[in-house]
Structure formats: structure tokens, C-alpha cells
Amino acid sequence: MIKSTTRLIAAPLLAAAGLCLAAPAFAQQAEPGDIVVEGERTDRREVLRTTRDITQRPRSDGAPVPRFQREICPGVWGLAPENAQLVIDRIYDNAERADIQINAEEGCGANVWVIVVDDPAATYAQLRDDNDFLVRDLSDLDKRLVADQEGPVRAWNVTSTRNREGQVVASGAEVAESFAMASATNMQSANNPVTQMSRLNSAVRLDLEMSVMLIQRNALGEVDAFALADYATMRLLAHTEPPARENVSETVLTLFSPDAESAQPDRLTAFDRGYLRAVYDSSATRPYRLALRNVRRNMERELEMEIEAEQ
């Protein structure tokens, strides 16, 4: 398995791995002295609809949005080392831009995995049969939901429930088992160390402990390393899924959708960056309906930055 933190400057062609670098897009040239400013209005309802569509809904409206609370360390398997490094570096860059903490130490333990395989469905089934560490801590429901995913990608997040201070909160099954054990042994049962909650803050937070994406090798086609990394960024650093509806805000999450059009984004869009920033700017215990209400404002800020960069 390849995982590294060495930053590369040049981007070699990726034809050997079935990837190729797309030609860069250049801004339209203007006559000397002219100032060309191109803006884009954001539709509030469209942004809200897209936000809801790509967010894997929690089991209650008061649940917080899952996110990494510890530094991320990407790992890549199934690509040549130089190509894997491009993907790793791009994920690091995306994370830093969204103010997500990273672990840039050599040999860090990977908790964000991009795995290129011939058959994601078969590979996932084998991981389940082997009780592999990549799937071991998924709930039975989450395992079934991953198995039901269609297309060339299987992605999942392993989460833990913790209180505000980061202590693990026992699940319902664990609490029941603890009470049964305590009753049989006359010992004190485990309890949930939760002390505060309100309408604006949940009693717990949901930590992403590890995220994994299996992608089918022959689905890469003309996709370049940056596109693969940007798609992985949205699937792995947040609790998301590709949009099921049409007429949504542009997002890289449509890249590998079976019915995606040829003109779908192959880079993180302003919406994507606005979404990631909303997830990580908010309080870790803020209910998801409140935590994600700043996506549109963040998106407009990203669009303004893009315009300024082009001038």
C-alpha cells in the first residue's frame, strides 16, 4: 500500500495507470486595458436542495454532521507510486484549503483510503467476509447500505459517537450489554458521560475515524489524478453521497454517476468547497440542519475568490 507525505511540484502524465492529465483551462483573453468581471448568481433553493441531496441524512434532525476531529492522513492503493503521490498531495491541499487538520509526517497511519480495484462490489464483499479492519467497525445497517451502492464506486465512513470532550459514548446495544453484565456480576454499569445539550447543540458529536473509497479501475478512463482526488475529497472528508436528483448545483460528486453527462465537473466546485467549509467551520455538536446553513454564503465567497484570482 502506498502512503506518503512528500509534496510534488511537477505532475507527470498518468497514462501508465489508465489516468491522463487534462489540458489546463485558460481564462478568456481581453484587450489591454479592459477589465472583464464574470460573476455567477447562486440560487438559494438550488443550493439548499443540493446540500440536502448529497448529505447522508442522520437518524435524527438533532444529530451533528460527522467530520474528522483528528488529523487526516491519506493512503492510496492500486496506483503506481508517482500517481498515488499526486492523489495524496491533492487531498492534502484540498483539506488545508478547507481548514481541515492534516498529518504530514512521513509514515503517518492512513485514515483516508483511496483504493483502485477491478471490481469494487466483489472487493467489498471479500472485505466483509474477512472482517477486514476497513469494514470491521461498520454497523450492520451501514454494511448493507454500502453493499446497495451502485456504479463504479463504493465509499463509506467509520464513525464513533463521543461527547463534547471526546469520550466515547456507548451505543444502545453496548449499554444493554453493560446493564446485563452489571446485573449478573453486581458491578456498576457503564453510563454515557453527556452533560450538556440544547436546541443549538447536540449532546454528542460524530467523529469520522476512517473513510474508505473503492473505485473501479476501468472507470477512470480520461479522469486525471486531480479529478480522482477531488472526488475522493468530497466522499471521504465528509458524510456525503452523489446527488440523486437532477438540476442541482454543480458538484464533483456527479463525476462517476452512471447517468452523468460529459460536461460534469471534474474538479471541486465552489459549491463543494463551500460545503466542506460549512462542515468544518461549525461546532462539532451543531445539528446538521444548522451546521450546513452557511453553504450558500461560503459558496459565494469561493466564487468571489475565483473571480479575484482571474483578474
Question: Can you give keywords for this protein?
Answer:
311 residues, alpha/beta, 4-stranded mixed sheet, 9 helices, 4 strands, disordered N terminus
Task: Explain briefly what this protein structure is.
This protein is α/β, with parallel strands linked by helices. It is built from nine helices and four strands.
Biggest beta sheet attributes? 4 strands, mixed
Q: Give, in spatial order, the strands making up the sheet with the most strands.
A: 1-2-4-3
Low-pLDDT stretches are 2-39, 172-182
State the end-to-end distance. 42 Å
What is the SS-derived class?
alpha/beta
β-strand number: 4
- Helical fraction equals 25-40%
Task: State the shape.
Answer: globular
Radius of gyration from CA coordinates: 21 Å
Q: Tell me the strand percentage band.
A: 5-15%
Order of helices and strands: HEHEHHEHEHHHH
Structural overview:
With 311 residues, the chain is an alpha/beta fold. 33% of the residues lie in helices and 10% in strands. It has helices at 44-54, 81-97, 120-129, 140-147, 172-185, 225-236, 270-281, 288-291, 295-310, and strands spanning 74-77, 112-117, 153-162, 205-216. It has a four-stranded mixed sheet.
